[in-house]
Each structure stands twice: as C-alpha cells, then as structure tokens.
Fold these 3 entries.
Entry 1:
Amino acid sequence: MGGLKDKAKGLGNEIAGNIKQAAGRATNNPRLEAEGMAQERKGEAQGLKGKVKGALGDKV
C-alpha cells in the first residue's frame, strides 16, 4: 500500500510544482519558478519510489 501512497504524493508534488512554475513565469518571478522545478523533481522521485515499492512488495 505504501507504493500507492508514494505515487499519489509524487503526483501531487508534480502538479503543485508545475503550477508554481507557471505562476513564476507569468509573474516574472524566477525564485518561484525554481521552487516549482524543485517540487516537480521531488514529485518525480516520490513517484519512482512508489513504483519501486510496488514492484518489491513494499519491502523498501
């Protein structure tokens, strides 16, 4: 079950990161855009962790 939870958290972070990036571009705020990129990468890593957990049966 942990794999699914990590995937969901990852997707949430990816979405939030994309929104921050768009807001940063729209308002010409490079700091916000960079925050969004970092959050998106965090989400991608969480999603990958979830996939690995799912493949290994939550033993990670």
Note: The chain has a mean pLDDT of 91.
Entry 2:
Amino acid sequence: MDGTVLVADDDRTIRTVLTQALTRAGCKVHATSSLTTLMRWVAEGKGDVVISDVMMPDGNGLEMLPRIAQDRPGLPVIVISAQNTIMTAIQAAEAEAYDYLPKPFDLPDLMKRTARALESRRHVPQASRSDDLTDTPDDLPLVGKTAAMQALYRLVARVMNTDLSVLICGESGTGKSLIARAVHDFSDRRTLPFVTVAAADLQELEGPMRVLARVKGGTLLIDEIANLDDEMQARLVRMMDAPGDHVPRFMATSQSDLAVAMEEGRVRPDLYYRLCGATLTVPALRERVDDIALLTEHFLSREERDGAPKRWLSREAEELFRAYSWPGNVRQLENAVRRLGLTSRSDEISRTEVETVLGNQPEMGPVLRGGSDVEKLSASVARHLRRYFDLHDNMLPPPGLYSRILREIEAPLIEIALDATGGNQAKCADLLGINRNTLRKKITDLDISVTRRRKLM
C-alpha cells in the first residue's frame, strides 16, 4: 500500500496495532486520540484515508464526516465502532462514510478495506444525510455484535435508499418486520405511509387497488408471501406491474426459502422474480448466541425505563440462556426476559428462576421451511455458506475455505455420532460408514474428546 493514513481512536492499543500494521504495509501513519487533532490534519491537507472511531473523548466521529467531506471532498473515511447497533451502521451510511466496521474488527479485513480506499482515492456517496436520525427511538431490538448481524446492518444501509424490491427471510420471531420497518424509517420514503399487507387485504378483486390508495408511494410490505394462495399472488403481480402514478417500494417477508417454495410450486415464479431485487436474511437467535446477553440487557433496560426494578442475570442464569435453543428466537427471548423482570424475587435473576420460566417452553425441534417441510440439509448448508461469503462484502474469504468448511462439518458430525452410540467407536464407525482406524485418526486430527457425555440444556 502507498499513502498516508490518519488514525483517530482513544484506545492506545488500537492506535499502536494499526500504526504498526499500516507502516509494515508501506503506509505513513499519523495517529491521535483527539478528533480536534484529526480535523486539524484534515484541514492541513494531510492524509489519503481516515480511520476513525465513533465515540471519542472530544466528540462523535460520525458528526465529523460532513465537515471532512466539506474540507476534503473525496477523502475516504473508514468508521470503526464498538457501538454495534443498526443505528451506527445506518448513521455511517447516511453520513457517507466510505466503509464501516464494528469492533472488535478483523485486522486483515481492515487492511484490505484500507488498501481499497487508497486505490480509489475518491468518495462515492451512498445516501443523503437524514436530519431525523437523532430523534429516532432506539428501542427496537435490532442490536448485535456478531458478524451475522453486522453483515445484515451493512446490507440494510446499502438498500434503504434504492428502489429495489426487498425480500426479508428468516424464522418466526427473528425480527423480519422490524428490519422492514427500519429500511423504511431510514429511507427517503420515511415521511410516506408504511403499509403491511396480509391475505385478508387481497381476498377481494379490488383489494390491491385499495392497498395502493393507502400506501401512496410509501413502502408496501407483504407479510409471509408464501402463505398466499395462487390467485392472491396473481393479483400482487398485476399490482406490481401497474402500480399507478405513485409507485411504492415493495417488500416482503417469508419464513420459507422462496427459491425452494418456487420450485415446489408454492410461489409463482413471476412474483418471486419481482420481489427478489435484494434479499436480507435475518439470522436465528441460535446462530448469534453472543448477542443473547446484549439483547437480554436491552430488554431489561427497557423494562426498567417503564418503571420495573433494575434486574440482571446471574452468571449461571446467563449460561443457561446461552445454552437454550430459543426456537421462538428474539420474540421468545423478549417474552422470557419480561416475565423474569416481573417475577424475580431479587435484583439478580437466578438460574433456578430461568429454569422455571424455560421449563414449560419448547426445546429446539426441526427447523421448518414453508410451514410443513423439513429443510434439506444441503439447503441449510448452502444458506450458511452464502451468509459466510456475504460477511466478506465484495472480497473473497481467506484461502483454505474447502478444508475449513469440511472440518466444521466433520467435527460436529462425529461428536453427535459418538454421543448417539454412547462413545462406542466401533458402533460409531459403522454408523458413519467409515473404517474404525479412519475414525480414530479423525478424532485425533479434529481434537475430539473421546469421553462423551450428554449435554443438559
């Protein structure tokens, strides 16, 4: 890399690490813990790229972006932040940041993005700045520090001001409707109506016309598109083809994989291709376990604002929350936390109280797609692999992907098979259809414990 990078972060360790890494890569680096110093450097014409934290001792890094754009048009700014909420990602996009990475960030990834910014030497506007962001309530549970949620936030920020139709997929309770609402509320259409359409709105022939009259060019969300019968889907196709003078933004939610539903004849191909302009996949809660504590704190804080006493989970209770499968996803977590907040006998919520609340709730069953059919394993693997590639934005994952993926599939397969056979390696090898010596080698190579015990959830 060739160029000068300005680094602003109040964490000395981060400044040191970035300075060393960028210097080794061939860059000149100026690092500071002050936004005032950063802005002085920018005004003096220093730097080809800026890497800035958001929360600084003397101000907010996002609030500096308009000034940087005014003083140095085209200067790329990469925002890094520990404030890992959808608001931060959207504000970074609204403020026209070149890129956004949550903390803790992956250093090689940041280096690649910095190299790309240095090569471009120009700023591509992504969205007009919103004057209403500071007045937006922050009580939506669209928070998460996991890679899956951060990737989702970046996609939301990219699509919100386009006219592309948006398909939002995910299991029940993951927050699909909240994502749709966030896309609308931070878009250029936020002052126009947001209308949710269900089957009842499309039963009559004139239903689509009445819907268009209500939405008035705003956002039209079609709830659970795969649950509509063929005639209703046909009416939607005709409505999308002739929306009138005020064309709305079309969005749809689905618990099903619509591509699979289309192949099975449950979704019309002409409707599918009209809706899949952009696809946002909302991860299940079991796929973002590290966000459970963050969400729990969020829900408890909200109850506290509403007058409930301050509560928190004990360490044992938090471990049980992490171990539980949450088949109802974030919605189930919210209801459980609300109940615990009301019924807990002390400020610290105990493991016993969590066991009582979760004891009457279902454990994880098969993941259903389309309401009835169990998702094929290959489809599930493909879905996770697509998400893994999405996490790397427009870059390829690190080399060695084939071996890494095989290892991640092989290890749990052998562990589960060992559990099922009570640790008997001969039976396990027979179950897997491999030689016993091969099984022993894989147990060693994959560092699998041969002392098996069932996990109590």
Note: The first strand starts at residue 4 and ends at 8.
Entry 3:
Amino acid sequence: MMQLVIGSLVGLEPVTFPDSSSYIHFSDVRNVGYPYFIHGLFSLGGDLRTVVIAQHLLLVPATIYLTFSVLKLTDSNWMAASVALLVLLNPFTIQFHNQILTESLFFSLSVIFLAALCQVSHNGDLRHAVVMGGALALAIAIKPIAYAFLPIIPMMLWINWPLLKSRPVKFLLYALMPVVAGLIAENLAHHYRHGQEARISLAPIHLFAKGSLVASNGENPFEADDPAYQLWQVVERDFAPVRDLIRSSPTLPAESYLSAKYEVFAQYQFARQEIAQAADSAGISSSEMMKKVGVERLLQNPLGYVRLVALNFYSVWTFYVASHPWSYAEINHYQEALMPLPFAEGAGFPEVIRPVKTAYIILPAIWSVAAAALGVIVFGIISLLRGKEMTSRFRVMLTASLLMHGYCLLVALTGIGIARYALSLWPFMVMTSLLLVLQLHHKKR
C-alpha cells in the first residue's frame, strides 16, 4: 500500500535519459536483462508508463521478504519496520523507479539479495542461498557492476563457518549454480538477439579515458610509423591542459568533480576523428585503438591510475561532489579564474555550481556509514582470524560492509564515481547502520 501511495505521489511518469534508448532499442553494448524486461511488458500491450508501474510494484515483494528476514534476524518488530520504511522512503531511490534505467530493478534485486543474506547468516537455511544466487544472476543480467556481489558468496562461507562448516560444498553449489545458469542464459539470450558477433565491450572506452587523464613519462612507446603514435601525440598534447587543471585543483572535491567530468568527456567525445583515422590506418577497430593507447599510458604511470581510482572511490561515497556544501564556492572561483575551461562546451560544465542544502545532512551521514562499515570490516576480520564467535547480526553487518566497500572499489577501478552507483547500496547502508545502533544499544544495556 505504501509503495502504491509513493508511486501515486511521484506521478508514475517515465523519465528517460540518453542511456535509456540503448535499453529500449536493445543496444549490443548492454546486457539483455533490462531490455527484455522492457520489451516483455511492451509485448503485453504496455508502454514506458507500464514499465514504471512494474518497477514500483516489484519492490513490494522484495521489501516484504526483507522485512520478515530482519524480523527473524533481530526478533524486533521495530527493527523490521524501520528497515522497511527507510528502504522505501528515500526520495532519491524513489526516483529510480520512474527512470528507464537499470537502477530500479537492480535496487529491488539488491533488496532480495540482502534479505536472503540475512536468512543464511541467521540460521544457515540453504533454500535462501538459492534465492541469493538467483537474485545475483538476474542482477548481473541487468547490470554488470553486480559482479561486485560475487566475491561475497565465498566470503560468507568464511564469515558463517559455524553455521555452514558441515556443508560448505552444498552452500557453494546452492548459491553459485543459479549464478552460472544465469550467466549462460544471459549469453544465450544475447546471441539470440544480436547474432554470433562478439559482444561489444565498453572497456576500451574506459581505458582510453583513464589513460588520457594520467600523465605519461613523456616518451611515446610506439614507432613513428605506427598509427597509434599520432593518437598518442594528440592525447599527450591536447589533453595536457585538462591534466594540469585537475592536478592544480584547490580542494579534493574540486579535483574529483573535474576529474569525473573530463573522464566522461574523454570516453565519448575527445579525439573521435583522430581515433577513427588511426584505427583505419592500422586496419583495426576504434575500440582496439583506444585500448592500445589507453593501456600503454596506464602502464607508464600506474601510480597515476591508483590516484584516479582513489578520486573515483571518494566520489562514489560523496553523493554531492558537484555541489559540495563546503567547497562549491572554491570550485566556482577556480573555474571562473581559468575560463574558458578546456573543452568546456563538450564537457558540459555549468556556469555556476549551486550548493544542495540537503548535502549538509546527507554528506556527513554517508561518510559516517562508510567509516562505520570500514570499522566493522577491521573488527570483523580480526575476530575471524582470532576465531572469536560473532552474533548473526554482526555477521550480517560484516558481510554488508564488505559488499559496500568492494562494490565502490570495483566502480572506482572500472568506471567513474557518480551518485546513482552508490545510491544502489542504500539497503545495505540502512541495514548496517541500524544493526550497528542495535548492537551498541544492547552493549550499553
């Protein structure tokens, strides 16, 4: 009932983005899970509004499952109700379900994964391990970043060893077989839709962008007659002002903001003509040429890549990096002093960054969750190494904390730090925070 009310209040009108068309039109760079979901509803006579309604409704059984799982884990009506309310009532995650993007289904599947995780950690019921594996399989078919959840399954075996030590192989089979079956099914569906051509990867685009952002040692590694030589020179010369601008940023928020903006620009707009010419001269695809140059630049400066990853990791945990409440004035002043910024029109910089007032509350809250999760990880690993017994509630906290930081690290390694990636972790943030409060309350008593 709550979800229907929420849906009515937000209007249930579809919101599309540039990426939306790639799902609606079955782009071959996308996993086919979400496009098939959309077209399955279309085949029943629905439209994009039907997709939005379905996205809202799918969260209902997921949240009910989580509510009962938390009730079993904590034996607390208040705790179960609090988790459900906070999962449902976040205004930012509510927006997911009106968007024609993968975040909505990924969010609901994350809730199911978390609910099953609670059940397994509480009583070792392997039926829920199957549900957990099934939710992960569907999440991967929808959004590749769900691979970040995969290492959690073997980690759960270690964390929940007292419950699972008599049947470790059975647990792994129950949890992983749905994932394997899902990967096979997604690949078959992709081939059915797109034929036998190799799946197009976005990795070369990301590698080229990251390589463009890191400084080289000044030496071109390619022979002068290699077409990659000229593309390297273009990156070295034309993107140098961008690298200098980012490196000279007055604050960390300014640096991460500029870095993320220019990384997206390098992915899709920078040197497109030069890339195509170099690829044509070499007789290879543009993707191969981008990968070739990008990898070489990263190999020349691995520490530059590490710094870029650190910036992205910071950005993932900083939802309002573009309007940081304590740094927006410095960012504006820095931009104004250096106008026009390199490639400013193509990179889409706003003339003025305006603060978001809610960031004064949200940023400290999110950073507190990140710090608390890190503390839980340190304490939990020490406890595991010492063989200390842990409560089922703490085991859930530890697993959720490892998942959150592992997920954010994978995003930082392979993509950029944007808010909607981190917001997908909202159920795990809620669970970890409330369980920690409950744990501290019990200790105090």
Note: The chain has a mean pLDDT of 89.
